[in-house]
Please model this.
Amino acid sequence: MSAVALEWLLRGFGAAWIVGSGLAFHKAREAALIDRVLGALSGTPEDPLVTRFLFVGSVLTLLSGVGLVLATAWALVPLGLLVLSQLVYFALVRRKRARARTPEEREEARVQPATMRAFRLSLLVMLATGVAAWLGRFGG
Model:
């Protein structure tokens, strides 16, 4: 693949990620509302881990998308933070699963396949952006 094609492929990903960040933010708001309602109904607050992860991920996805569309090496910063936040989330879910007392809690404390795919894609885009920056296609 040529460096120019890589640049435009990453710009396309960036545009898609800008749209996706809006969808993720909307989903995070819905999840927060559902958590509040369920917490009010049950009398115990819901675990906000997934909702917080969705909010953080949506902001970092937006920043990454903008950086990719602008073809700047600075896109590596939010991309790196996005990958790091996903790794932290995986560690928290693993800890929650280890502390689960019931089969239901254990089943609830797992990483969704879509989240795992998003992590792999984020990692791939971050590596591709690093290559594009190294090739001089993404400026400072």
